[in-house]
């Protein structure tokens, strides 16, 4: 079934949908993390960057117990670059990310609490604190190739 453009719908139908949406939000609102992930997925419709896939995740290695006391290591790779992260707890619902790219870059860390923009140092190292727990993705623009951004796949931290 095709979805109608709300601007072409009858005003009574629009009012009914708004009332229904309000009722459902009051009874069972969508989780913030799910809404954030949906917005992130929707942004892929016009993506102009290369996807860096998750190549290594310490949570997937072996049969160890997932613990917030032990930092989680993540590595993302693509043909044009590499991003390595160490994620640790920074409070109950916050994360601290220490990372390194394979060369200097400017980053955007997209997370449920918004977007953090920061540069790496000359060796590709960076640090971000108070990142909201939930789905996270990094957009990386390497300074030596600004027209070829890289975006990591989404991962829940």
Tell me what you see in this structure:
The chain is of the alpha+beta class. The chain has a single domain (43-156), classed as Immunoglobulin-like, CATH 2.60.40. It has two helices and ten strands.
The CATH architecture classification is: Sandwich
Query: Which stretches of 5+ consecutive residues score pLDDT under 50?
Result: none
The CATH topology: Immunoglobulin-like
Helix content: 10-25%
> Number of DSSP helices?
2
Based on CA inertia axes, which overall geometry fits? globular
Proportion of residues in extended strands? 35-45%
- The CATH class name reads Mainly Beta
Structural class: alpha+beta
Number of strands: 10
Q: What can be said about the biggest beta sheet?
A: 10 strands, mixed
Terminal residue distance: 36 Å
The count of domains is 1
What is the CATH superfamily label?
A: Immunoglobulins
Radius of gyration, CA atoms, in whole angstroms: 19 Å
Helix-strand topology string: HHEEEEEEEEEE
Average pLDDT score: 84
């Amino acid at each position: 079934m095709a979805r109608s453009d709300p601007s072409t719908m009858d005003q009574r139908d629009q009012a009914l949908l708004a009332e229904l949406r309000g009722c459902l939000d009051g009874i069972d609102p969508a989780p913030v993390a799910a809404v954030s992930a949906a917005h992130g997925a929707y942004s892929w419709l016009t993506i102009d960057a290369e996807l860096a896939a998750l190549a290594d995740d310490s949570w997937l290695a072996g049969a160890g117990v997932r613990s917030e006391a032990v930092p989680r290591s993540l590595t993302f790779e693509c043909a044009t670059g590499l991003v390595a992260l160490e994620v640790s707890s920074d409070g109950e619902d916050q994360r601290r990310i220490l990372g390194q790219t394979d060369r200097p870059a400017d980053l955007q860390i997209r997370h449920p609490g918004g977007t953090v923009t920061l540069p790496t140092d000359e060796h590709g190292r960076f640090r971000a604190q108070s990142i909201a727990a939930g789905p996270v993705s990094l957009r990386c623009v390497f300074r030596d190739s600004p027209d070829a951004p890289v975006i990591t796949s989404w991962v829940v931290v």
